[in-house]
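Can you give me the bound-state structure? Components:
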Amino acid sequence: MELWFLLSLPLIGSLVLALVGARKLAPEINVAFSLATFLAGAALTRRVMVQGPLLLGHEQFFVDPFNVFLVALTAFVGWTTAMFSRPYMRVEETHGRVNSRRLRLYHSMYQLFMFTMLLALLTNNLGLLWVAMEAATLTTVLLVSLYRTAASIEAAWKYFILCGVGIAQALFGTILLYLAAEKVLGAEGSTALLWTHLNAVKGQLEPTVLALAFVFLLVGYGTKVGLAPLHNWLPDAHAEGPTPISAVLSGLLLNVALYAVVRCKILVEGATHSGLAGNLMMGFGLLSVLLAAFFLWRQRDIKRLFGYSSIEHMGIVTFAFGMGGPVANFAALLHMTVHSLTKSAIFFAVGHACQKAGTQVMDDIRGLIVISPTVGWGLMIGTLAILGMPPFGVFTSEFLIITTAMREQPWATPILLLALGVAFAAIFRRVQSMVFGETQLAPLPHPPALVPVFAHLALVLVLGVFIPPALANWYRLAAALIG
Amino acid sequence: MPVLPWSSQLIHLGAALLLLTSFAMLSQRRVLSLVNLFALQGLVLSFSTAAVAYSSGQPHLYVSAGLSLLLKVILLPWILHRLIRRLNVHFDSEPLLNIPTTMLVGILLVVFSFALSQPIAELSTSVARSTLGIALAVVMLSFLMMITRRKAVTQVIGFLAMENGLFFAAMSATHGMPMVVELGVALDVLVGTMILGVFFFQIREQFDSLDLKHLEKLKEE
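Here's the bound-state model for the whole set.
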């Protein structure tokens, strides 16, 4: 029941918002639907925590601790981003960057995007997972080009073509997976793409086909995760689209794409009995961390800077999942959560800061703390959190990942530490000069929404100091599932 | 060598024609002819699907054949024709590689695809398994076309041709994916093409041309 609410609410929301258009209430309706989706997600989470994994709708939908935690996170950040987007998009309209027709598109697509992500997370069918991932790209392409500037159109085109080609590789991987599955499960009744069925027989799947399939799946979904060297679309799309979209791309879409990779990894690892899948993920992960850390130095645009930071963090999570084992998986899941919360909070603060400054160029943003202490402190605290300062949650997860790496893959530890150090210096030096110092910025026509920023950061702080036993238990269950 | 039943021969003929249209697309610079070739490829694809359906006795494949006939022979070419007329793009600018070189690279890609798909094809039980190499080659050739062309419209046709190759791969390896997945993929392709149509107008409005050389500003400095 909760599941149907969860999936139908954003879909209805997108229809309603398409009909309502750009009336005054559209942002409020967007928030209301997002809140309702979050409540449905919370109800579903509660049910899974009480009853254990669920199979619904003729086995087409599957909920276990692994995906339900991402569902709750997605719905929560979806809701807070909708709250942030309410004043943000009003200011953009006042500044004349969007007109009412585009706002209609924006709100409607926002809900549709939430729907595609929830569908990707909840479906048990690996083919539908692909369809939902592609649909998630399609819904966001027009959002990235919302401002119709030359740069935003270029970013959206790059996003579409790169992710389109990437995800075509994933479809080929899915076909290969189906080929292997069909020999074991039979094509009749089309159960051969259902993850639960595949997971039950993963030991019998043909290892060579699955190994090849995983390469295609990793490259395909990895493009959407933003793994280097397939990350080119990510900084552009983050920098040129509206800031609420940057927040959900970074905080949610990357997680969902990584979820797809991990689901496939579970199957492949079960079939090949070798470290191939894990090694590939560790390699791509480390390369992303390292490359992103050095690219951070060359950024001048603040949203690009944090786009590269997302590549770095996704690299860390991919590396941790690649290592495998209960501790690394636990840390990876925790890192997904805290990165998602912190990064979206940073984008909220950055969005307001850019609106105040009228630019995204970091050299032109100065003294945020003077003009608006809340935005300034929000950005500063968020940055400290994302850079892995204790006592925030990012520190906990990175600490766990690095200590596990020392034990299991000692060669990787210096690379990780180097990259984290380089990233720290690159980001901190920039943010410090933006937050403090003299200013000439103007106040905003609408009061900014800072509740989401501090709510997210407070959650990250709580996760760093004390993980509630229920949540820890839940992560542990999910980590055990991933293996 | 044993004589194959005529339906398998038909499938092989279809596969060969598919590869041929891919090469023809690679060498074609007129955008309208490119769309016609794409429609032809869709037609061949739809007939091969029907042939596989007949020889394997899988009724749901007839539905996929009808679906690809509707989508890839009628609907998408119609949308593309309209777009090209309204945008007035007829010739692609000079490709990044000249055409003979592209063809040579294409031949190498075909050899590579056959080598890659050999071990997988042996595992498949489908009647059309020997054509998996061709399917992969079509994907690779479309990929090559996307890399070497500069006009937005040609890149999109390359993208759609790649989807044709994937569809053929699904069919030759496994008799097609489950229906719900196939419908979903078809929907994504259709919506994607329509979004791109909107996009062409945005690009044109902004840059007065559909040449992608204008879209190379966002770089790391």
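A couple of observations. Chain B has a mean pLDDT of 84. The two ends of chain B are 61 Å apart (CA to CA).
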